[in-house]
């Protein structure tokens, strides 16, 4: 086993390897494969195989500056999407302790302690006072 690891390390030396773009492409590939389990589409199968081939090509490439610039381009163009995914993940992690409600005036999302019942609150952005109803959470 150790010999195989050494040979693999020697093979990968000087190659680009995995980056954020490779991780995104791998996730896309897995999503396409799962969807195709239900869809049974040759087109979807070919698209998923193309995504896999591009991922492998990028990971095994020796043209490191080109792959790095491609990665920077992808990161720049997916910044908004990655930010919204991170925001949703953070909200989900905090959903046990906090409720998220929108201000009816300025539409800003407020993070409120999750205490069950009706409450009055004030938006820190616009100063609007409004009532919120938190349906589940800690009792008062």
In short:
The chain has 140 residues and is of the alpha+beta class. The protein has helices at 2-12, 20-39, 42-60, 64-77, 79-94; strands at 98-102, 109-113, 117-122, 129-134. 57% of the residues lie in helices and 16% in strands.
Mind explaining what this structure looks like?
This protein folds into two domains: 2-77; 96-134, no CATH class. 57% of the residues lie in helices and 16% in strands. The protein has helices at 2-12, 20-39, 42-60, 64-77, 79-94, and strands at residues 98-102, 109-113, 117-122, 129-134. The longest helix has 20 residues, at 20-39. The mean pLDDT is 94.
DSSP summary, beta strand count = 4
**Approximate helicity band:** 55-70%
How much β-strand is present in the residues? 15-25%
- Broad structural category: alpha+beta
Could you tell me how far the N terminus lies from the C terminus, measured between alpha carbons in angstroms? 60 Å
Number of helices: 5
**Main beta sheet strand tally, sense and closure:** 2 strands, antiparallel
Query: Which residue ranges are poorly predicted, with pLDDT under 50 across at least 5 consecutive positions?
Result: none
């Amino acid at each position: 086993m150790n010999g195989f690891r050494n040979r693999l390390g020697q093979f990968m030396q000087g190659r680009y390897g995995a980056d954020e773009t490779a991780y995104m492409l791998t996730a896309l590939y897995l999503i396409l494969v799962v969807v195709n389990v239900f869809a049974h589409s040759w087109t979807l199968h070919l698209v998923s195989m193309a995504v896999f081939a591009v991922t492998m090509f990028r990971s095994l490439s020796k043209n490191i500056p080109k792959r790095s610039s491609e990665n920077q381009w992808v990161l720049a163009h997916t910044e908004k999407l990655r930010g919204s995914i991170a925001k949703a993940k953070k909200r989900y992690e905090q959903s046990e302790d906090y409720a998220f409600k929108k201000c009816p005036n300025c539409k800003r999302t407020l993070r409120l302690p999750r205490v069950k019942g009706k409450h009055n609150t004030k938006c820190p952005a616009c100063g609007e006072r409004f009532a919120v109803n938190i349906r589940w959470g800690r009792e008062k």
